[in-house]
């Protein structure tokens, strides 16, 4: 059978680092409070000329370089983002143009923090269906542009950045020993939409709006939802937490990450954590974490890796792949 195998990875971050100490000059907060409740110590903030598309392009080029491929080798681009450069066209089309691609097809997916998991699952379906051989899957965000910088409950949490994977069709034997995407488990429940949302949009207010969140409600649901889809991925492949080499979670909150790992029986030393460095970068957080852990040699060929996320909507999902 056809598997979608990771050929390359890349990441891009804005130039500006905003530390917790600097946040104390913006809102009434302090480093100890932020670290204790979230695990975040700093985040990157996009400056003039830095956009979702420019960060996504940089991450894409890094992934292509690592894969020893060029844009001419890519058939499709999927960008997971909730902060596009424009209402339309898609940021993926913008990145396609920036890469000098005049072939193939490109589109965005919007599932907020779960966006990259949805995008990987979507690319895998296109590859297995024979509609593409190689795909660029990008998670890119500039959440700093939709934050209310007077709301200390949200503005301390989020940051900007981008990460990318190159997926390529490869022959597999149909077993869990195959390299590539082994299964995906996606969920959503729109009944929770008002717990994490942006209070603007083209069809309602005609404005971009600001992010609003009921933090306690999100936290209350997060661990249960995440463990549900991870257990679903284990059940679909006949694997268990003992088989897992790495858990790469959405980097929203250190307490959610640790709570999910404990509930699943996954040792914390098998969990990739970058929330302290990047904050919550929404759809960019998983590919940024992958690039960090694969770049420093922790994730290596043959490792069994679980990606998981939960975000606004609510959306949540997991992808199990062999590196």
From TrEMBL:
Quaternary organization: Homodimer.
Keywords: Acyltransferase, Cytoplasm, Fatty acid biosynthesis, Fatty acid metabolism, Lipid biosynthesis, Lipid metabolism, Multifunctional enzyme, Transferase
Domain Beta-ketoacyl-[acyl-carrier-protein] synthase III C-terminal: from-to ranges: 236-323
Transmembrane annotation, as ranges: none
Catalysed reaction equations from the record: malonyl-[ACP] + acetyl-CoA + H(+) = 3-oxobutanoyl-[ACP] + CO2 + CoA
Domain Beta-ketoacyl-[acyl-carrier-protein] synthase III N-terminal: 107-190
Active site: 113, 250, 280
Protein name (record): Beta-ketoacyl-[acyl-carrier-protein] synthase III
Organism from which the protein derives: Ferirhizobium litorale
A biological process from GO: fatty acid biosynthetic process
Compartment(s): Cytoplasm
Physiological role: Catalyzes the condensation reaction of fatty acid synthesis by the addition to an acyl acceptor of two carbons from malonyl-ACP. Catalyzes the first condensation reaction which initiates fatty acid synthesis and may therefore play a role in governing the total rate of fatty acid production. Possesses both acetoacetyl-ACP synthase and acetyl transacylase activities. Its substrate specificity determines the biosynthesis of branched-chain and/or straight-chain of fatty acids.
GO MF term list: 3-oxoacyl-[acyl-carrier-protein] synthase activity; beta-ketoacyl-acyl-carrier-protein synthase III activity
InterPro entries: ACP_syn_III_C (IPR013747), ACP_syn_III_N (IPR013751), FabH (IPR004655), Thiolase-like (IPR016039)
Major localization class: cytoplasm
One Pfam family named in its UniProt record: ACP_syn_III_C
Signal peptide: none
Gene Ontology cellular-component terms listed: cytoplasm
Entry's family note: Belongs to the thiolase-like superfamily. FabH family.
SUPFAM superfamilies per record: Thiolase-like (SSF53901)
